[in-house]
Amino acid sequence: MASKETKQRGRPRSFDRETALEQAVRSFWEQGYEATSIADLTRAMGISAPSLYAAFGDKRALFEEVVAEYGRLYGNFIVRAVAEEPTARRGVERALREAAVEYTLPGRPRGCLVISAALNISAGSAEVAASLRQMRQSHLREIASAVRADIAAGELPADTEADALADYVGAVIQGMSQQARDGAERASLDAVAALAMRAWPQRPTRQSTRSSARPSTARPEEAPETPDASVAAHPAP
């Protein structure tokens, strides 16, 4: 005899899965993983609990799909900016500017889901928190890799600490996300991005060896005139 779940899966769906998933994205984005209940999800998605389980699995499985969908639609701008720009500095500056826009757009939840959904997670959801942390750390590794490439190319000083610089960028982005959730507007986050880039290491100055070896064109100090010997021997009367 077929189980209730099998019968449910065999029925044609009476809802649009993509639309329901988008609503789940918004719920987790607004409330975080821990605070979002199955009742919240079914209400937002417009489906019953059995339909949710049949179409998406349990809450954890749904959240994993939500995070992937969030990255596809909204969240990959940081990695994309760093990958597309010719230097780490330009990539990070673009990412911070885009974060100021993305985190404050009207009509969608504020901040970053991958950052905010991990807040206030209990020990029972430690695996979810670890998964989100690994995702954030992978973004930082991409930034650190770009920084190391710039060091090798002479765009950054040789003593630049790539991992520390990437961690700094991550701290700024997380702060911008939280400030957006607290109500900060784009102009404020733009100012944060500008100040953050002022801490970026300066490109090393390249001194020409030719100029250092160039002979001086300054005129040597003239020696005092020596009196004519004949005049010295026969002074004027």
Topology:
Elements: H1 4-10, H2 17-31, H3 38-45, H4 49-56, H5 59-75, H6 77-84, H7 88-102, H8 113-116, H9 126-153, H10 162-181, H11 186-198, H12 209-213, H13 229-233
Helix pairs in contact: 1-4, 2-3, 2-5, 6-7, 6-9, 7-10, 7-11, 9-10, 10-11
Could you walk me through the main structural features you see in this protein, from its secondary elements to its overall organization?
- 65% of the residues lie in helices and 0% in strands.
- The chain is elongated, with a radius of gyration of 32 Å.
- The model is unreliable at 1-10 and 207-237 (pLDDT under 50).
- The protein has 13 helices and no strands.
- Helix 1 (4-10) crosses helix 4 and helix 6 (77-84) runs antiparallel to helix 7.
- The protein starts with a helix and ends with a helix.
- The chain is an all-alpha fold.
- The chain has helices at residues 4-10, 17-31, 38-45, 49-56, 59-75, 77-84, 88-102, 113-116, 126-153, 162-181, 186-198, 209-213, 229-233.
Quick overview:
It is built from 13 helices and no strands.
- How many strand elements? 0
Secondary-structure element series: HHHHHHHHHHHHH
Tell me the strand percentage band: under 5%
Query: How is the quaternary structure best described?
Result: single chain
The radius of gyration over CA amounts to 32 Å
Low-pLDDT residue spans: 1-10, 207-237
Q: How much helix, percentage-wise, in residues?
A: 55-70%
Q: What is the approximate shape? A: elongated
The secondary structure category is: mainly alpha
The tally of helices reads 13
The main sheet comes to: none
Indicate the mean pLDDT: 85
Distance between the termini: 145 Å
